[in-house]
Amino acid sequence: MIKARTLQDLFRRYRRPGDLVYSCICLAVSLVLAASLSAQTTWVAGTKLLAQPAFWPHVAVLAMVLFSALHLVSGLISDKLDGRWQEVWFWLRSVEFAGWFMIYVIAVPYLGYLPATLVFTLALTWRLGYRGARHLGAAALFGLAVVVVLKSLLQVKVPGGAVYELLPATLRSFMLTYF
Amino acid sequence: METFLAGVALLLRWDVALALLIGSVGGVVIGAIPGVGAAVAIAILLPATFALDPIVGLTMLLGIYGSSMYGGALPAILINTPGTAVNALTTYDGYPMSRRGEARRALALAYSASFWGGLFGILCLILLSPLLALVAPHFGSREIFLAALLGIILVVLAHRGQVFAAGGLAAFGILLHTVGLDIRYNQRMTFGQSWLTGGVDLIVVVLGLFALSQAFLLLTDTDSAPDPQPVQGSLVSAMKETWVYRRVATVAGGFGVVMGMIPGVGEFTAQFMSYTYARRTSDTPDAFGDGAPEGLIASEAANNAVPAAAMIPLLALGIPGEALTAMMLSVFYVHNVVPGPQLFQTQLDFVYALYVAMILLNVIVIVFLIFATNLLTRIIQIPTRFLGMVILTLSFVGVYSLRNSVTDCAIAAGFGVMGLVLKRLNLPVVPIVLGMVLGGIMEVKLRSAMIRVKTPLDFVDRPIAALLAAAIVLVFVLHIRTLRREHLARLKGDEIDHDIHDSQQR
Per-residue pLDDT for B497 more than 60? Predict the structure, then answer.
């Protein structure tokens, strides 16, 4: 049974652990941006305030400062939620996968799209703990399907790999075009 | 009628038909997999559609948008996990029905109510289009600025309980739009960084906030693999029951249309209002939340009526009301098709073609679901971390194929981590995207409006501008009134359902 007496109860979203850390970061970033506003924007003589190029950055940054300050205050006067630092640790753990993504991005122009994708999908699947032949096979098949559909068939713009230059001439042009 | 037929003729191409099929079926599958919503799929596919004709690209994206909610009802009913964010209320009555052995009935009701709502929404739009063609040309710079401002305000205020965070994020979105060279070619908020001179690309931000963040979230979180039971028996016969609840389905569709048209409001509001209406007018209000068919129908009919309605502000004014239409706006821009008042005057056949495509997608989806529901129950068993790997691999193509830039990928990864933090905190990412898009519209329109504005009152001296300004004031007044009511009728801590909006994570 839904425990809501009003429509507003149904709409309402609630704070989660880590909210206070987030609001502190937001306020700090907003204040840094506010401090740099004058150096990062230009006011043009003879132009109305609302048409100034500096108008919208000022509106945006000042609104950020206002809202993040109110958010922080509302967090400070609310009940403390357990699990704040575990939550922050979760955020930090996600950076590992951002790293995986960037390694994949950097590897593609060197290894080529097909080899880099196969290595990436297999290595990441292994890292995630799926070490059986079924999952690794599915990962390899998925990697191959992605490249065939997107590069070979749809000709999505992804450059050929530098290692393809080492291949014989006929195979090289085939790989550069399709994989 | 002639224009309508010309619109139909635009669709009579094999590539449009293929795009419609891929979009519709793909959307259902994507919607059915918890953790991959339509936003993730559209974000990934967006750059690929730039190479296609506008009608082909938009048909595919519309297919995904319109059909994902059908698919999202499946896990909501069978495993109590909404497939997409807007199927959250479906779990309240759908899952209890499943538990008491009525899964087939619940699915049939959800599908047929979705179909009802979807068609009702499109029908309203086709009937409204001539009216829009008359009204839209009266929107000048001032009116479009005020409509965009109203959209931003509604997006912020719609996040009840998180208005401060949503406001800050919308402002951040506006700031992102201002980065780069200003109108006089001066550096603006670039901090001397050459890679910021060209501005921050909307697609890169969208891919980071929606696709990469979801991949990071699934990869970092613990693994889970849903195990829904197959559905026995025919769905077609059970679908007929929706006719008994046609009043609820039609009113819910009506809420979907009205709320869908208002920028920044969308499916949640439509769903909650229809659900409240259905419960209030039901003979058995206590059964709501415990497997009431009307509750399920209200939720599904309302959310499926929204996509068609959400196209109204986009097509008529060039103002997206939520994230998915904001993404579609970029498809228009890439092809130099400028949505707005002129579109209804000069390309009404194109608009009708989109509407007919939406009708077709609803038909394709319902037929697909009648035959493939049990196949979908197998697809949604993919382990979540493996799914994270899949999304991450596909996201690479989305970002990198834009201009083969490692910097774009690094920015997208940064926004991916930011999106993960926001999703974990159950804070919305939509205000950032709308802030970027509507911020750009507001800056351009305000600047051009100021040429004719001498005093502040000049700004609202035209009827539509005055109405929009009055609407903005009214929204604030109503917000303060509801805050006061909410305070008086607030629930005790142990009565609150904190999880109703965990769907920011989907």
Answer: no
Contacts of A112 in chain B (CB under 8 A): none
| pLDDT tens per residue, range B226-246 | 777 777 777 777 788 888 888
Can you give the residue ranges of every domain in chain B? 2-452, 453-489
Chain B residue at shortest CA distance from A100: B392
What gap in Å lies between CA A47 and CA B311, rounded to an integer?
36
Closest in B175, B186, B489 to A61, CB measured: B175
Name which of A8, A101, A129 is nearest B482 (Cβ-Cβ): A8
Residue A177 token pair: 């075009």
pLDDT for A68 equals: 95
Average pLDDT over residues B294-303: 90
Instruction: Please give the residue of chain A at the shortest CA–CA distance from B479.
Output: A8
User: For B322-325, which contacts have Cβ atoms below 8 Å and span 24 or more sequence positions?
Assistant: B322/B155, B322/B263, B322/B264, B322/B266, B322/B430, B322/B434, B323/B39, B323/B206, B323/B210, B323/B429, B323/B430, B323/B433, B323/B434, B324/B38, B324/B39, B324/B42, B324/B61, B324/B65
Helix (H) or strand (E) holding B134: helix B103-135
Query: To the nearest whole number, what is the mean pLDDT of chain A?
Result: 88
Contact B308, B316 (CB under 8 A): no
Q: What is the pLDDT of residue B504?
A: 52
Burial class (CB in 10 A: 0-12, 13-18, 19+), B48: middle
Residues 6+ apart with CB under 8 A from B255: B270, B273, B274, B277, B302, B305
Using alpha carbons, list the distances in angstroms from residue A6 to A148, B482, B491.
53, 10, 9
B336-339 contact pairs (CB < 8 A, 24+): B337/B54, B339/B314, B339/B315
pLDDT at B31: 85
CB atoms within 10 A of CB B494: 6
Q: Which of B118, B165, B139 is nearest to B468 (CA)?
A: B139
DSSP A42-56: -PPTTS-GGG-TTHH
* A161 chain-B contacts, CB cut-off 8 A: none
For B81-108, write each residue's pLDDT tens digit.
777 777 778 888 888 888 888 888 898 9
User: Does residue A94 belong to the interface with chain B, where contact is any CB pair within 8 Å?
Assistant: yes
pLDDT at A75 (0 to 100): 87
Q: Which residues of B447-462 are buried (b: 16+ CB within 10 A; e: fewer)?
A: bebbeebeeeeebbee
Tell me: pLDDT of B496 over 60: no
Give pLDDT tens digits for A3-13.
Answer: 455 555 555 66
Burial per residue of B5-16, b for 16 or more beta-carbon CB atoms within 10 angstroms, e otherwise? eebeebbeeeeb
How large is the average pLDDT for residues B370-397? Answer: 88
CB pair distance less than 8 Å for B425 and A22: yes
User: A58-67, B158-167, B390-399 — which is least confidently predicted?
Assistant: B158-167
pTM of the model: 0.87
The two structure tokens encoding residue B210:
């929606």
Mutation site, A7, A13, A24, A29, interface B, largest B CB count within 10 A: A13
